[in-house]
Every structure is written in structure tokens, then in C-alpha cells.
Write a structure and sequence with these properties.
Layout: H1 3-17, H2 27-43, H3 48-60, H4 72-83, H5 91-103, H6 113-122, H7 131-144, H8 151-164, H9 170-175, H10 177-191
């Protein structure tokens, strides 16, 4: 398993093939998820092969956006299946990586501890101080693709999303969930000021 070669390959692919309109799902998001995966692995004592598989899944989890934003998780798995064997990954390892990538599909559905870690890393910002600035980048992305029109629409979606989301790891339940609760309360108060639809 040559992780460094796989990392160099996928970062180059993301750099050259991702749309510039992906204000949220750009290479910066992939690197953020990788960074948080590594952080969570320290807290949750994940090492060795499991750590490398998680790092690889983090790097590939949004690679499907190089093809399409629709079903990007499935597309990311296809990219992983095509390229990871060239870097010494076995079928079994790639299956586990694809399980992690698919677990990040909204609504998240992790089936094991490694999948819980990548899910929490993917949405880590929900309980961080950069919540509003990262949220704005997602709003700008959805707006540029014609999916959303107004901030009011976005804030209503955020309330629903935050209400339905929960962190999975002990680490993020402790360090992110309480802060996420504050953001949810703030957004609910804001949405309460809107006229009824």
C-alpha cells in the first residue's frame, strides 16, 4: 500500500479537475477532512492499516465531484477502484475504503467505527468556530448551481439539517455537539423571524 503515491495522485487530480464553482467541495474541504480524520484517529486510538485506510478514504471521499455532483460518492468509489490497485491496495482494502466513502452520503449511515470517524470528520465544521463561514461557502456553491436562491431558504434547510444530524464518535460528541447546539438555537431564532411560507 503506497499511501503517499495515492495521495499525490488524487490531490493532483482534484487540483486540476474540480470545478471552480465548488466553493465548499473544493480541495480545501478534502484537506480539512483529512486533517480532522488524523486528529480523530489520535483521540480514538486508530493506527496502522486502519489509519492509512481512513486517510485514503478522506482523500477520495469527494473525488467523484471531478465527474459529477450527482451520486459523487459512488463515482468516488469507482475512481478508488480504478486507481488504488495501481498503488498496491488490495480488493479488501478498497472495499473498506468504499464503505467509508459511501457512509458519508447524506443522510450519513456509518456501519463501523472507521466509518463513524470519516462521517464526523466530513461534517466536523458543524461544531466549530468557522461554522458560519464554511456554511456560507456551501450556500454560495448551491446558489451558483441554481439549487438555492435565498438566504432564508438556506437557513431553513440548515435548521432541518442540524436537527437531523448527530455526531458518532465519543470525541466529537464531547467537543463538537455542544457548540453545534448553540448554532442550531441561533438559526432557529433567526428562522422564527421569517414570515410563514
Amino acid at each position: 500500500m503506497n499511501y503517499e503515491a495515492a495521495k499525490a495522485f488524487i490531490l493532483q487530480k482534484l487540483e486540476s479537475e474540480l470545478s471552480e464553482q465548488l466553493y465548499y467541495h473544493g480541495i480545501h474541504h478534502t484537506l480539512d477532512v483529512l486533517n480532522i480524520v488524523e486528529e480523530l484517529c489520535r483521540y480514538e486510538t486508530i493506527e496502522g492499516e486502519d489509519l492509512i485506510l481512513l486517510q485514503t478514504a478522506a482523500l477520495f471521499h469527494d473525488s467523484g465531484f471531478t465527474v459529477s455532483s450527482k451520486n459523487h460518492e459512488e463515482l468516488g468509489c469507482l475512481i478508488a477502484k480504478e486507481f488504488l490497485p495501481k498503488h498496491g491496495y488490495t480488493d479488501g482494502q478498497i472495499r473498506r475504503i468504499c464503505g467509508m466513502i459511501m457512509a458519508t452520503k447524506i443522510p450519513q449511515s456509518p456501519q463501523n467505527h472507521l466509518e463513524e470517524i470519516i462521517c464526523d470528520a466530513d461534517l466536523d465544521y458543524l461544531g466549530r468556530e468557522d461554522f458560519y463561514s464554511i456554511g456560507k461557502s456551501l450556500f454560495d456553491e448551491l446558489k451558483s448551481f441554481g439549487i438555492l436562491e435565498s438566504e432564508e431558504q438556506w437557513n431553513r434547510i440548515q435548521v432541518k439539517f442540524l436537527e437531523g444530524h448527530h455526531f458518532h464518535t465519543e470525541t466529537n460528541l464531547a467537543r463538537r455537539a455542544p457548540i453545534k447546539r448553540i448554532y442550531l438555537d441561533e438559526l432557529k431564532a433567526l428562522v422564527a423571524t421569517y414570515k410563514e411560507n
